[in-house]
Amino acid sequence: MSLNGDAFGSLAALFTTGNGGEGQAARTTDGPTLGAVTTVLVGNLPVMAGLWTTQFADAVARIAGPTALVRFERDDVTIELLRADGRQVPPAGPAAVSRWLPRAASTVRRWLICVPAETSPAEVLAAGQEILLMTGADEAAVTGAYLRLKYLADEGINAGTPIERVGLVIVGATTEQAAHAAARLGDAARSFLGVDVETVACLPRIERVESSARATYPAEECPPIAQFTRELQSARVGASHRFDADLPAASLVMHTEAAAVEPKFPSMPQPFTSRQEPLAHGDSAMDTTHAPHTPHAAPHTPHPAPARTAPAFAALPVAELPLKLVPLLRGLRALGISCPMAPDIELALDDERRMHIVGRADQLARVRTARTWAAMHRELLGMAFAELKDGFEVRERILLGDAREAISLHGTGVLLDVLVVAETPNGRVHVVVPLNDPTTCG
Q: What pLDDT is attached to residue 319?
């Protein structure tokens, strides 16, 4: 399904930012979270529904990594990948989507299955996934949202599986308008239907999104909604997700008006100052092939071991990361500039003229903000830096102080390194150890 450029301009003008979204801030909430597969019931939305569903999928992808948006419509099915680092969807053809799912399930972290408002409640519940309702905030939209919740609640009771919770995404409204609409809908649903409605996100405007691939398939070539979710679930079970058992649900992004929010970020850790534990900088950092290991214990002997016997080695988590991360990473040099929206994220170049965007374990969203900024200003960066003149590849990189922090970042497409304290015969040193590479980062 294609979008006409004139239609986009005329219908979306009131909801788009004039500067590609730079004037709108985003922050992570501590409230509702999103599971791996979610059914999105699309209600009454301002402008074009497809624009808002893509906007929401992109917001999820900023936090959770590669995200698939699957839109079931009357005559076709559209699949779009957001922030998926070049991954592709299959060309149209009989059963192409079903054959693609096992491969996609191993790398796509979140799946949003969008169904139109007229979809029967039985079909929505048959999908067997967490349910989100996406709606506008005007009177007609709120009324329509309540009626859809009532149909779902009635069907759940009739089927013997009553629903207890539905997530809510409100679009095209200010924070105050969204809060008012959510309160009205939530009070009515709780009082008359026994359903808790939790606001997941508010998207006031349409911004630029980072779409990696998109294709539309005839409905007859794709499995119907319930069968699709079953095939997806089977593919996910069969996929290799080493860390999924410990992977927390992704906190969603709450978009608010720029004037109404002042994003607050954790204070930066202080630089490491212990003289007994020098940092292994740049070229002096050890490679993983030279990482210290614990030798097998020597057989018991009544005589003391010689003084020069190799001691045991250990790698310990660092207490806190230094202020600057780029000097710790071999082969990188600082670019000397920063993204205005994420000034604490470091930009660097490697020997092959690739840009590395470097942050900490809790800064994935800000790393991706810096990546979007770099992509939007590619031409200006090329004018400022000769190495970037002919275009450049961007790599997201997270430096960890504890390898356990990698659990929630597994499969997000980010390069992961861990800084550890290594006990050596000459004392303690800091060593940067890579945990993955571009082919295994997801």
A: 60
